[in-house]
Each structure stands twice: as C-alpha cells, then as structure tokens.
Description:
Blueprint: H1 11-14, H2 19-29, E1 31-35, E2 40-42, E3 58-63, E4 66-70, E5 73-78, E6 83-84, H3 86-91, E7 98-101, E8 105-110, H4 112-121, H5 124-146, E9 158-159, H6 164-173, E10 180-182, E11 187-189, E12 197-210, E13 213-218, E14 223-224, H7 226-231, E15 238-251, H8 252-261, H9 263-284
Parallel strand pairs: 9-13
Antiparallel strand pairs: 1-8, 2-7, 3-6, 3-8, 4-5, 4-7, 10-15, 11-15, 12-13, 12-14, 12-15
Helix pairs in contact: 2-4, 4-9, 5-9
Amino acid sequence: MAMDDLNFARPAYKSIYDPAIALAFFKAAGTEEKVAPGSTFFSENEKSGGLFSKGAKMYLLLEGEIGLTVKNKAIGKIDQGQIFGEMASISQAPRSATAVAKTGCRVISVDEKQFQKAIQKDPAFALMLMSIVINRLRQVITELSGNSVLTDEATLSKRSVFDKKMLAELQQEFEGNAPVHAPKNKVVMKEGEVGAFMYVVLDGRVLVTIKNRPVERLVAGGVLGEMALVDQSPRIASAMAEEDASLLSINRRDFMQLIASKPEFSLSLLKGLAERLKQMNAQLG
C-alpha cells in the first residue's frame, strides 16, 4: 500500500472514513481547482521540501477519476469523495506514488495554513484521519507481531513528537496538574488494558514494547498512549520508564479540547502517527 493512498474504499476503513466530514473540512478553507486529463498531481519520490509546501498538498476529489502508479505500474485509483496525498503532506516524506488525472477532474486542495484554519473549524476531520492511520497501524503491528519481526532494540532511536515550543505550551496549559513521576523501571501502561490517558514525556526516557519486544524509545516531547485515546480500543503496547521520568497525563476530554483549540497539536500527532506507520510498513517489505 502506498503511503499516499490509505485507500478509503477498503472495507477496514469504510466504517471510519466519512466523505461528508472530509467535504466539510476541505470546503472550510481549501482551494477548488480544475485539472485537465493527463495532468500529474504529484510524482513518485517527489520531495515536499517542507511540511505542506507546494509539492505536499493534500486533495479531495470532487469529480473525475485519478490513477495511482508505482514504478509505472497501476496500484489503484481515487474515486469521487476520496482524499489523496495526505500521508506525504503530514509526514514530510517523499511521495510514494504518482497520481495522474485519468479524466478531467475537480479537486479541492489544502496547504498548511489552510489545514490549520480548517482544523480549528472542524476538528472532526483530524480525529477521523488519526483513526484511519491508527487502524492501519494496528493491522501492520498485528502482522509484524505474528511474524516476530518487530524492531530490534539495537536499531531504536530516541523519538519525540512535540518540539520544545509545543511542549512548553502543553505544560502551561496543564500547569495546575502535577506531572506523573515514573521512577526507573516503573510500568507506565500495559498492553491490552483500557486507555484512559495519553502521556507526554517531559523529561527522562520511556521504553515502549509490544509482546515484550522494544519498538520505541521516547524522550522529552515523546508521546505514548494516544492510539487508545483516539479509537478507544485496548492498548497495543506496554511502556516502562528506562530512567526516572516525568510525564504529563492527558485524559480524553482534555485531548478533545486540544484537538479543537490547537491545530499544531493535531498536526504534530498526525505527523508522529504517519512516521510510525511508515517505519512499520518498511518492516513489512
């Protein structure tokens, strides 16, 4: 599956993807464009040059049909009401497919400023997109776990989602809430349990494992537990403090308020999820 095409027509996503939510989101701040047959929206391996740069727009197809190819081989198509180009836009990764108008098309495009403006008006789209990426993540993790091909500890890098500015804003937002202290070797969350909170690492280091296999090492700005908070499914991973750590806990109500009030928060989470999906997909080969 190409990163630029989550294929919203797949049965696994039909219960999550709502074309009406997508349309409302794109109409809120997007730009409508008419595209001639044979025109290329983006090309495989094309680099964006930055988050939501000109080459990293995401699109909603209003009319027409768009074909997707990888190495000149057709891998699928985009139908009316579907979005495309979203994964490279969010993750700042090179395009993994080429998208070409098979017929005359009408689309709505969204760049970074438009995306943030629309998220403030309609945060439901961000939640829907997170849910779709998480759904795919759970599928990939299940497949990797079954094949015992999860990340080897030697390849783990120190990972964070929020930059220093966002981390400071979150600490200020919740300055009345005492951080959770996790001494070395303390279990922060367990695989299979219901997730009532997500956690942001303020300092220290946390190791995330799946079926006792290490998959992520989180430092300041790192996030854990957000998947269960978004889709309200059991946790797919466990986490333990590798050294004394301080964590900011966020419940679902506060999480929803942050989605609605801080578009940068949504964008950072989406980027983190997209990067995680890219890494997991790479292990599938």
